[in-house]
Design goal:
The chain is of the alpha/beta class. It contains 34 helices and 33 strands. It binds one RNA strand through helix 13, helix 16, strand 23, strand 24 and strand 30.
RNA sequence: GCGAGGGUAGCCAAGCCCGGUCAAAGGCGACAGACUCAAGAUCUGUUCUCGUAGGGGUUCCCCGGUUCAAAUCCGGGCCCUCGCACCA
């Protein structure tokens, strides 16, 4: 039989939403549970990997719903930034990859046309996410509350948030250096290259500019990342073929390349180009080094790139392979020397000077590595590698040597900062920021680092805010626990964060300066609050215009005069009171679940914004992080459009199979590869489950057996365990019990001869609802199939227990299972086909001794007391010998036993009776006669003396 | 570089926080058997290694340490992921 999962899913999701069991309204006095997943950015189709976190959220929410909670699980999307804009642009210019993805997802040409503008993209994908993904997966989400960060009402909320941050003194302004396109303002540089055409791996480097005095009053300005090597200077490099400019900077005249002057103009207040200087005209001149005052000559080098740094370079041949080889080449090149009147003496004077002691290296690492790698020309491609190696070793492990004055003996890393600071304060140096590689904006213009003098920041460096946030984090349920620990550090390291930007972005205008748009993190961290209110805006009960500062103050903070708010907002006092009560009812948020990429940005800011703005009792209760579903090692990339469209996967595998895959494939806290076969096997598992349930409906009779109590006890135990797992939101262990362990229990029950219809029905009524959090559609279908009324989703799960009776029932079957294992082992090893198996239950004195040992204090078993107690009953010399040996044995076993073992060992039941009752079953299993007797039984036949092995819980066996 | 996480049997993956229930859950795969005309599905068993009696040996990346006892704790090493802030 093949189940039509697709039809089953459609049937139930339609029924749920029609009955509106997904909608959440406050029920005063009823426990609430409020959970969200971090909403996705609207940047295109999502892929099957994204559904992992969403599904886990739904499973937890459904579980909570079935354990007596009123749940709130709202969803939304994040459209701020330029994801939608760049998507629209790609559509507009007919980018084949983008169009291909859209077509593969079944878009018509009209639809594609509508995606050529950002609003269309947002509208379209909002529909896709809600309908094709979340509803398709049967989420118990209250769709009335859907919101999107570019909705006008949402914007009002964000404006309010910024006002509150300002009121708390957490908005500050200071200069900022951002990569920017001259045309489009600041751009994001990241590997996915959403803002840019080229250069996604570029970094902003901070060069130190060192000023070298020429005798005519001008400064040659070299850019370096290693200012501490100033002690090893031997000469200066200038490209003789480049035209440099004289630029006026703060009353000084700097010689730099033309591109450098342009860059500086973006970063410093007054940079004016006065004239130009030919590189060749500088050859052979001498200049005075900063800090050391040493006079050094200018030599020619074609390696000075006018586009890197200032286009001028200081030469430290001891530690820079390029500088060393430059000198070597210059020495060889007599033409060049003649052209610029450079004497041999001058070149000789530029001998490398040792300045850094690096373990494992000689005094001149640059010279050393060039020899070792056989580098002798500038054209050698190995030069790059040599530079990296020397720099890495010198910078991280080196120590400034005795020729470095007051810095002698300092580690290079520390010396660098100290020297730089001194030179900056003595205005012998300046700072210039530049990108490590060329970055080109989407528009084709070059991206440069630009000073923004009045950038707004949220002051996450604020010590009080940090302290309160860290303190609160310690009280939260944060999973995995590694992150619970680490979030402390993340908050500690947090600096101020730029919160608005200029340029063409989607987002909310900054209320204090309309030129700015609030950036994408700042508007997506306090938003769980807004889900409480979004419904009122969506239903038109309040208009965006009515959502004033006072409105939010009243509803969220409980501040202000409600009649004033009524007048401002156009909402009646009564409705305002409802909103306020609703906020108080749902808040705080119980769990925010998001992918691991949020650990260093979203979650800490989410927490800090709550702490900064809301009252202490409304701070969030929990954070959960999920790792990724990957595709054969690499992330299933969103930008590649997803390996397979989610609706296609849902059709192919079934939603429930996918849900079970996400839940069971591994811990939430590791990456897992998407694997079609695995998903299919979960689909098989669901079919098997269906078949088993269906069979159970047929096979029951009125007859009850000794197994009935066992199955019910077992289920009770499982229930108790399941709830324990869910206390830690351990969905994986939960699904393992439900889909694998419980079905094993039921099969064992049947195998052992259990057949009671009423017990089986009881079992099904317990089991099927347990599936509802993970595979809700199948669960509903089965529930209906066994004749129950919908919805199982609203059924209350029972609690389960592990009382003595449960334990003793479990122990009885464990005895039989262990015995079967022993017998199998014996038969396997001896490869015999027995005609009869004798089971010999431990003699009563052993049983008494065990219970005496268990009665003694834990970890302190008194062996001699055990022996003394047993000796009076010893009738034979064999027994006299056996008593001390067994006593030692028991003492050891009992004192080593973990809690679980002790409980099982202590279980009270009559082994002989249990085994006698099972002898028929055992005989069937092994295909021979099975005789069960106590060792105490005078009629016991024991030709090989096996009975001495009998222990409580482990009878002796003799096969013949 | 800074920070975080990880390396477990053929594969995936639990266990590690809180040492003894661990030759190590569960799944997948493989093998054998049952059912069946047969295949598939299903069920049962086996799946480090040796063993004609329920036992022994060697394992949880490597080296060392703590302990009566280590996959689990501590130190060192090798290798792999991931995050690093205006992409959310």
């Amino acid at each position: 039989m093949t189940l039509d999962f697709s039809a089953m899913e459609a049937k139930w999701r339609t029924a749920w939403y029609k009955a509106r069991i997904n909608e959440s309204n406050p029920v005063p006095g009823k426990k609430k549970f409020f959970m969200i997943f971090a909403y996705p950015g609207v940047t295109g189709y999502l892929h099957v990997g994204h559904m992992r976190g969403y599904t886990i959220t739904d499973a937890i929410v459904r579980y909570k719903m079935m354990t007596g909670h009123n749940v709130l699980f709202p969803v939304g999307t994040h459209s701020t930034g330029n994801g939608a804009i760049s998507f629209a642009r790609k559509v507009e210019r007919g980018d084949p990859a983008t169009i291909g993805i859209l077509e593969a997802n079944g878009c018509t040409s009209e639809t594609i046309e509508s995606l050529a503008n950002a609003d269309g993209v947002v509208r379209f994908f909002n529909e896709v996410y809600v309908n094709d993904y979340w509803k398709r997966f049967g989420f118990m989400s209250d769709w009335r509350r859907f919101t999107c960060t570019t909705y006008p009402d949402y914007s009002r909320f964000i404006e309010w948030q910024m006002r509150k941050l300002k009121a708390h003194g957490l908005l500050i302004q200071k200069p900022y250096f951002a990569p920017a396109c001259l045309e489009h303002g600041p751009v994001a540089i990241d590997a996915s290259e959403t803002d840019i055409q080229k250069g996604g791996t570029a970094e902003v480097l901070e060069y130190t500019l060192l000023k070298f005095d020429l005798d005519d009053g001008r400064n040659l300005v070299a850019a370096t990342l290693r200012p501490e090597t100033v002690f090893g200077l031997t000469n200066f490099w200038v490209n003789p073929d480049v035209e440099y400019v004289d630029a006026e900077v703060d009353g000084e005249t700097w010689v730099v390349s033309r591109p450098a002057a342009e860059k500086l103009a973006l970063q410093m207040d007054s940079v004016k180009v006065l004239g130009s200087t030919d590189g060749s005209a500088l050859m052979g001149k001498r200049c005075k080094a900063p800090f050391t005052g040493k006079m050094i000559p200018v030599f020619p080098s074609n390696l000075c790139d006018p586009n890197i740094g200032t286009g001028l370079v200081m030469s430290v041949p001891s530690d820079a392979p390029v500088d060393w080889i430059g000198l070597v080449e210059l020495k060889r090149n007599s033409d060049m020397r003649a052209r610029y009147n450079l004497t041999d003496e001058m070149i000789e004077g530029a001998k490398p000077i040792a300045i850094i002691d690096t373990p494992g290296w000689g005094p001149m690492p640059a010279v050393e590595i060039c020899e070792r790698m056989g580098i002798s020309t500038m054209a050698d491609p190995k030069l790059d590698e040599a530079t990296k190696e020397v720099y890495k070793a010198g910078f991280h492990r080196g120590v400034m040597n005795s020729s470095c004055g007051e810095f002698s003996g300092k580690p290079v890393e520390a010396a660098k900062d100290a020297i730089r600071a001194q030179m900056l304060s003595g205005s012998q140096a300046a700072i210039m920021r530049d990108l490590s590689e060329e970055v080109i904006c989407r528009c084709g213009e070059k991206v440069l680092v630009r000073k923004i003098p009045d950038q707004w920041f949220i002051d996450y460096a604020n010590p009080g805010l940090k302290e309160r946030s860290k303190e609160h984090a310690r009280t939260m349920k944060i999973l995995p626990k590694e992150y619970f620990d680490n979030i402390q550090n993340v908050i500690e390291w947090y600096r101020e964060r730029a919160c608005v930007r200029l340029g063409n972005w989607l987002g909310t205008r900054f209320p204090f300066d309309q030129r700015w748009i609030i950036e994408a993190i700042a508007d997506s961290t306090l938003y769980p609050v807004y889900y409480v209110l979004s419904r009122y805006a969506n239903e038109g009960i309040i208009k965006p215009d009515g959502m004033t500062e006072k409105f939010f103050d009243y509803v969220i903070l409980g501040e202000g005069d409600v009649t004033v708010v009524e007048a401002e907002s156009g909402v009646s006092v009564e409705t305002l009171g409802m909103m306020r009560a609703e906020f108080e009812y749902w808040y705080p948020l119980d769990i925010n679940l998001g992918g691991k990429e949020h650990m260093t940005v979203h979650f800490p800011v989410f927490l800090m914004n709550h702490v900064a703005i809301l009252r202490p009792e409304h701070r969030p209760n929990g954070i959960m992080v999920n790792w990724y579903i990957t595709s054969t090692g690499s992330k299933i990339s969103k930008s590649k459009g997803g390996a397979q469209p989610i609706p296609d996967a849902a059709e192919k595998f079934g939603v429930d199979a996918m849900r079970l895959f996400y839940a069971h494939i591994s811990s939430l806290f590791v990456d897992v590869a998407w694997d079609d076969e695995k998903v299919e096997s979960y689909s098989d598992r669901l079919e098997k489950t269906w078949i088993l349930v269906d069979d159970l409906l047929r096979i029951g009779t009125e007859e009850s057996t000794g197994m009935d109590a066992w199955l019910l006890a077992r289920l009770n135990m499982r229930l108790a365990k399941l709830h324990e797992h869910m206390a830690d939101y351990d969905i994986r262990s939960y699904s393992n019990e439900v889909y694998f362990e419980i079905s094993q229990d039921i099969k064992w029950y049947l195998r052992r001869g259990g057949k009671s219809r009423s017990v089986l029905m009881d079992a099904l009524r317990t089991w099927i609802p347990l599936m509802a959090p993970i595979t809700p559609h199948l669960s509903e279908e089965l529930w209906e199939h066994i004749g129950q009324k919908p919805f199982v989703s609203l059924h209350r799960l029972s609690d389960g227990s592990r009382n003595d009776e449960v334990i003793s029932e479990e122990a009885k079957e464990k005895l039989i299972q262990n015995l079967m294992q022993d017998v199998s082992e014996i038969l396997k090893v001896t490869s015999m086909s027995p005609t009869k198996i004798s089971i010999m239950v431990a003699p009563s004195w052993k049983i008494e001794m065990l219970s005496a040992a268990l009665g003694q204090p834990k970890g302190k078993v008194d062996v001699s007391a055990l022996i003394k107690a047993a000796m009076p009953d010893a009738k034979t010399p064999e027994m006299k010998k056996a008593i001390p040996a067994f006593a030692k044995d028991v003492a050891q076993e009992v004192s080593r036993a973990a809690e679980h073992d002790r409980v099982m060992l202590s279980a009270k039941f009559d082994e002989l009776e249990v085994l006698k009752a099972a002898s028929g079953f055992l005989g069937e299993q092994f295909g021979c006669a099975v005789e069960v007797r106590s060792v105490d039984d005078p009629e016991l036949v024991d030709p090989k003396g096996r009975s001495r092995f009998a222990k409580p819980g482990r009878p002796a066996v003799y096969a013949e």
